[in-house]
Design goal:
The protein is of the alpha/beta class. The chain has ten helices and ten strands. It has one domain: Aldolase class I (TIM Barrel, Alpha-Beta Barrel), CATH 3.20.20. The longest helix is centred in the last third of the chain and has 32 residues.
Length: about 300
């Protein structure tokens, strides 16, 4: 299986008043592919996954697979409170031909290597052939595993092929994991909305998982960095930061607002509890988007 690298955005979930919007999801996938992304992630925290019913989740994942047409790898989120639920999500993904699963260990089992190892070994036993991306999210949402705990888990669970490291600060953790990683670990992926992407890349991260709204900017940054054009990459990074700082607060509302501004989505409906955007916040977001420049505001075909 090809190593995951580059920009792997987490797709948001588009809603209408009556439920989820599969047609809008197709537009989101098309936008991502035309932006040149290297893979897609669904569902994840940025997808408002905890608000989706089982039927909605399955329907949207099938839409993502059909719309992607095998052009880039798809990583399916499979995090849940129990091994049984993770396995159920994993089997559903495998039915759609997806074999890479992102799993955040449940907080209920604690942050000890023994408990996390046992949890993931049980998952791997039920899902042979699956590659696990161990998501190490910060507290209060995640378990905030130490680099030592992550390494112990990775050494003992061969199915863990990647770590998505997004504790704060992520950079030192990425360095520590890669300095002592076993051979079967294919890489460490950055999170945190790409707010620290250059530090993550400098420390050896193989990919990043930002939100979707400025995927074209993130792809341009990634390509410039990998081509050795560090000044160009940093200029794009600096331009993106004001918007990403606001995204850390307004989360899915900002993502959907920007995607409406860019003509991809029709509305900004969210289900997850998220701070509302007042007129001043909207003006600030629009100003930040405008300052990113022509790359972010490029015309995108959504048909």
């Amino acid at each position: 299986m090809k190593r995951l690298t580059g920009i792997l955005p987490v797709l948001p979930t588009p809603f209408v008043a009556s439920g989820v919007d599969n047609e809008a999801m197709r537009r989101l996938v098309n936008f991502a592919l035309e932006a040149g992304v290297d893979g897609l992630v669904f569902p994840g925290f940025a997808s408002e996954v905890e608000t989706l019913t089982a039927l909605e989740r399955a329907s949207l994942l099938e839409t993502v697979v059909e719309s992607t047409k095998g052009k880039v790898p798809i990583i399916a989120g499979a995090s849940a409170a129990t091994v049984e639920e993770v396995v159920r999500h994993g089997r559903q993904a495998m039915q759609f031909g997806i074999s890479q699963l992102m799993v955040q260990p449940p907080k209920s089992i604690g942050a000890g290597a023994e408990a996390v190892t046992a949890f993931l070994l049980a998952v791997a036993e039920e899902l042979p052939g699956v590659d696990i991306i161990l998501q190490n999210a910060p507290a209060p949402r995640g378990s905030d595993l130490s680099p030592e705990a992550v390494l112990e888990v990775v050494r003992r669970v061969a199915a863990v092929r990647y770590v998505k490291e997004e504790t704060l600060p992520a950079g030192p953790a990425i360095s520590a994991i890669l300095a002592d990683a076993p051979e079967h670990l294919a890489g460490v992926i950055g999170g945190g909305g790409a707010r620290y992407i250059l530090d993550e890349y400098d420390r050896g991260a193989c990919a990043a998982m930002p939100a979707l709204e400025i995927a074209d900017v993130h792809v341009a940054l990634d390509r410039a960095y990998r081509a050795g054009r560090r000044g160009e990459a940093r200029a794009l990074y600096v331009k993106s930061l004001p918007l990403l700082v606001l995204q850390a607060v307004y989360r899915m509302r900002l993502t959907k607002h920007v995607l409406v501004r860019r003509g991809i989505l029709d509305n900004t409906i969210v289900r997850a509890p998220t701070p509302a955007l007042d007129h001043q916040a909207i003006d600030d977001i629009d100003c930040c988007l405008g300052e990113i420049g022509a790359v972010a505001l490029a015309s995108v075909t959504t048909a």
